Amino acid sequence: MRRAPLTPRAEALAYRIWGYAKPRAWDVSIGDLAQALDVDRRRIGIVCARKGWTTRLRASPPAPGAGASFEDLHDLLV
User: Fold this and answer.
1) Structurally, how many domains does the chain consist of?
2) CA pair distance 1, 13, nearest whole angstrom
């Protein structure tokens, strides 16, 4: 089963992603792309996933607070 093609807007974003990442040998993260292209990280991630590019990208560092534990949250609330 084939996926529906990307919209023209998403294809344009894919071209911008490719144009930024290719000269850098794809040594960029989704966060780097989002910042450089001034586009939401989720849109970058969706387009990269649809194009099959996610394995080419460098892993993004975790978002601040992403590793917080339940105990950390409990300490903040108490």
Assistant:
1) 1
2) 24
